[in-house]
Amino acid sequence: MANSLLDIRDLRIEATVYPPGEPPHDIVIVEGVSLTLEKGKVLGLIGESGAGKSTIGLSAMGYGRGGVRITGGEIFLNGRDIRKGGVAGLRKLRGREVCYVAQSAAAAFNPAHRLIDQVVEAAIEHGTANRAEARKRAVALFAKLGLPDPANFGNRYPHQVSGGQLQRAMTAMALCSKPDLIVFDEPTTALDVTTQIDVLAAIKEAIRDTGVAALYITHDLAVVAQVSDHIMVLRHGRQVEYGSADQIINAPRQDYTRALVSVRSIAHEEKAPSSTPLLSVRGVTASYGGALQVLKNVSVDIHKGQTLAVVGESGSGKSTLARVITGLLPPSEGTITFDGRPLPRRLAERSKDDLRQLQMIYQMADVAMNPRQTVRTIIGRPLEFYFGLRGEGRDRRIAELLDEIEMGKGFIDRYPAELSGGQKQRVCIARALAAKPKLIICDEVTSALDPLVADGILKLLLNLQAIEGAAYLFITHDLATVRAIADSIAVMYRGEVVRYGPKSQVLSPPFDAYTDLLLSSVPEMEIGWLEKAIAGRRMASAGN
Amino acid sequence: MNLARVPISAWVGILFTGAFAIVALFAPLIAPYPMTLIVGDLWEPMSAEHLLGTDNLGRDLLSRMIYGARTTIFIAALATALSFSMGSILGFTAAVVGGWLDQGLSRFVDMLMAIPTLIFGLVVLSVLPTNLLTLILVMGILDSTRVYRLARAVAVDINVMDFVEAAKLRGEGRGWIIFREILPNALTPLVAELGLRFIFQVLFLSALSFLGLGVQPPEADWGGMVKENKEGIVFGIPAALIPAAAIAALAISVNLVADWVLNRTTSLKGGRGGE
Amino acid sequence: MGGAIARLIAQRIALGVLLLFAVSVLIFAGTQILPGDVAQSILGQSATPEAVANLREELGLNRPAVVRYFDWLGGILTGDLGRSLSNNRDIATAIGQRLGNTLFLAGVAAAVSVPLAIILGLIAVRYRNRWPDKMISAVTLASISLPEFFIGYLLIYLIAVQLGWFPSVSTVYDSMGFWERLSAVALPAATLTLVVLAHMMRMTRAAILNVMQSAYIETAELKGLSQFDIIRRHAFPNAVAPIVNVVMLNLAYLVVGVVVVEVIFVYPGMGQYLVDHVSKRDVPVVQACGLVFAAVYISLNIVADVVAIVSNPRLRHPK
């Protein structure tokens, strides 16, 4: 262990929780975790929410958020136990031997200061460089990380640059004091997929060139496979599996790891479109009052019992399309035909039956259900409202629906807050099904969920489609989800449909430029994918 | 709700608030002397006969305190009820209906709130007849602006939540949306605010009476009693401090209860510990 | 860059002036158009019809309200606030003198309470959830509930009557020196300080806590900066605007609290003047005082907003 940079042994971390109406008490959030990291190597920490991965990462800096305390184990950094150094010892090591890159750089930069002053601050504070040297170093790092106009980039304020640039600037900030170790805490999670790949490549290159070691924390195994030498899989604060990146990805030993590796590998055969579409959107243009058109001349069809996936990054107009179809945002031009008849543009003009036929499932199941209503009311209301079902008949139907979403009638008197994230989304699905709709709009329904839970939801949706025959309009930014569930695909970019057709056709070459960029940006569960993707891109741009 | 989990401060608040309410309700049964009867010399010290002594005219101070509790709490409660019902109904309506109604009401409330409540109260009371009804109306209407702002803000927050949109997409009417979707979620913050509004009304009424513009003598109310007995202070007679302390005690105990309700509300936001 | 900020500030001030006009309408309406006859209510129910008619004539109540409003407004804009009904003295002169006294009292209270509140707020944050914080928040909860006259008379009873340190009545006159004046307002200023202190401190604590819980403070901590540097370099620049906002709101509150405190200490300021004339139903004086109070209140709010605009980096350095 002599030459290991970071050596954590039998780590135990506790936190004080304040549950409403109960006396505060301590819970264990990390237990029995041990790891070592050699100089210049990268260890990926992976797990779902609540796995304790960020907590472990921060413990390498002797830091705990909120009421989090390190209560057991040893943390050796450069051969010294950082728990024995006291507050002064920690202060000397933070920002000098170990630095931190946060998930949201937008929040982690102080809005009141120029970027350059924040980037060089730690180096100057710890006396590893004077101001002029530190600035020179920062500019060189800006250039290395591919930031525009490196000499002047630092003169800007955080709100004046984009999210991807801020994330790189934060990496520069960490590298500027030449630390031995950097803790990357989900540095690309908040970014769009086409931005993520560039930032990821920049981070990887910077790690390689500077020889810094890193703890790389993420929930996305495909991402961590690109940058790590070793990977530790965590669940509920304990380690599940720990090995080389190659072994974890290609020969996982634990069931849980295997599940994570094979996530989103649902095989779904696309169905052939019928002759008359169920919903037909023709030439729709829409805006939120201003001159800016959020949707430009959009035309798509959805066939009975099939799934149209609308895919795009933030700002592509995909959610606006859903609002137009539901009638919440009347289009300025274009028509929508449903089941052979034109659908009124405004919600208020549609008949009760129109509304029943078209149901919606939201991204955040948390706020899509009234927290003061029980599952009985949430699922029962559409039954009562559309079909006049009451009393026992209604309860029987609720029980059937609860069975269909694989939950069972034991949940009927629960409040949403008493359900897990996946269960909440299932109840929302049941509420949509209760109306016996012909079309369900699914707006990013799996993006807020952990991968395994999301997988369960996708499988359920596919099963239900086979049973109930409802068509789905599936809005997502995630191409893996699209592959899993779609029959046809519409790719949207800046309010326009840039590519549209059956899944097999949309996903096979020749591609248009944007679809190509999008497809080549989605990390794959394959070591070395990042290099290939970047090389492919350079070739493409050289060819142009 | 588990009674053992109610903190001591809340118990103290509930106990005292309850005691004040009982005194107010049964004033004629509890008070040892009639409210306006002169029973002794002016500013007699505390004695077995007059537990708190006598006031500036020689009336029994304890009896006047008890009747004063009745007046003060009664007026403040009615004014709170008025400000609350008016403020929350208008606030909810503005949030749900939106458009020009919301704009108009909100701008008008902004304007009313640009004048400090006490100052505007004084301006209006300079021309209005001095009676209980005017007092309650003025207090209630002026304070309803604050309730309006809170109710509107809470309702606007809830109104943009997906579950309300889901109800709208289902085709629910305005009644269902206000009473079944928004109201149950807005109730807890509003109830916590109720206590604070009541305290404000007690203090507002007491200030007005102290300035001679609220409850008129010989009727007893705590603020007015401070005014009646204030001349005694310079002679070292603390009679004026007793009603003043009673106002403070009432306000503090209601505050303790409100604070507890408020804390429960904020901790409820985190859900019930599902997962 | 500077232009955008200047425009925003100009907009805010223009809005304030507009609001002041709206308020003048409201105050005028509040005293003129309310149900009941102003002249009747001024003179009381026992007045003879002739007396009422004479007063109506004198007040110009026979002319339409709109005309009277613009007369009044025109007067204000040229510095003429009219004459008092009760003693026929020029209102502007009387207010001028008393406004000075009130601002002196409020100024002394602010000079003591603002730094004290900020220091206590910082202590509460520094020892968050430990006994100094808990004690401070318990005391604030109590003192927010205390009426001004309770604190005022308690101070008179203990300090003026029992100890005899300061006079119980705050008489001031023109020939008084600064220190004499200061001693005269000591008790009312102390009362006002106690009244606003708790509130201001509680809000300061919340404002600083809000900043201290930001992610960029964690970043600073993870850079190994000292507690002092974190507060000086990272918390302070972002806390200025919210704290100024808190201070301004409380100064506005202080200006209102002055009314009751002046009556307690028989201090010859605006508050005393207003209350006296409300009892006498002297409408012109009440209108003028109401407008002056509202103007002070609105100006303080404008200052708070302007500071917020100036200190916002997003506005100072637009994209």
Question: Which helices and strands, and how do they pair?
Answer:
The complex is a heterotrimer of chains A (544), B (275) and C (319).
Chain A: E1 4-17, E2 25-38, E3 42-46, H1 53-59, E4 68-77, E5 80-81, H2 86-93, E6 98-101, H3 105-108, H4 115-125, H5 131-144, H6 150-153, H7 163-176, E7 181-185, H8 193-210, E8 213-218, H9 221-227, E9 230-235, E10 238-244, H10 245-250, H11 255-261, E11 279-286, E12 295-302, E13 307-311, H12 318-326, E14 333-338, E15 341-342, H13 352-357, E16 358-361, H14 365-368, H15 375-387, H16 391-404, H17 421-434, E17 439-443, H18 451-468, E18 471-476, H19 479-485, E19 488-493, E20 496-502, H20 503-506, H21 513-521, H22 529-543
Parallel strand pairs in A: 3-8, 3-9, 6-7, 7-8, 13-18, 13-19, 16-17, 17-18
Antiparallel strand pairs in A: 1-2, 1-4, 4-5, 9-10, 11-12, 11-14, 14-15, 19-20
Helix pairs in contact in A: 4-5, 4-7, 5-7, 7-8, 8-21, 15-16, 15-17, 16-17, 17-18
Chain B: H1 8-25, H2 27-30, H3 61-97, H4 99-113, H5 117-125, H6 132-159, H7 162-170, H8 174-210, H9 222-229, H10 241-268
Helix pairs in contact in B: 1-3, 1-10, 3-4, 3-6, 3-8, 4-6, 5-6, 6-8, 8-9, 8-10, 9-10
Chain C: H1 2-32, H2 38-43, H3 49-59, H4 65-77, H5 91-126, H6 131-144, H7 148-163, H8 178-184, H9 186-212, H10 215-222, H11 227-264, H12 270-279, H13 283-310, H14 313-316
Helix pairs in contact in C: 1-13, 5-6, 5-9, 5-11, 6-9, 7-9, 7-11, 9-11, 10-11, 11-12, 11-13, 12-13
Number of strands of chain C: 0
Morphology of chain C: globular
Which runs of chain C of at least 5 residues are low in confidence (pLDDT < 50)?
none
Largest interface, counted with CB-CB under 8 A? Answer: B-C, 46 and 56 residues
The domain tally of chain A reads: 2
Average predicted local confidence, pLDDT of chain A: 88
- The CATH C-level name of the largest domain in chain A is Alpha Beta
β-strand percent of chain C reads under 5%
Low-confidence stretches of chain A: none
Q: Tally the helices of chain C: what do you get?
A: 14
Tell me, what's the shape of chain A?
globular
Residue share in helix of chain A: 25-40%
The H-level CATH homologous superfamily of the largest domain in chain A, spelled out, is P-loop containing nucleotide triphosphate hydrolases
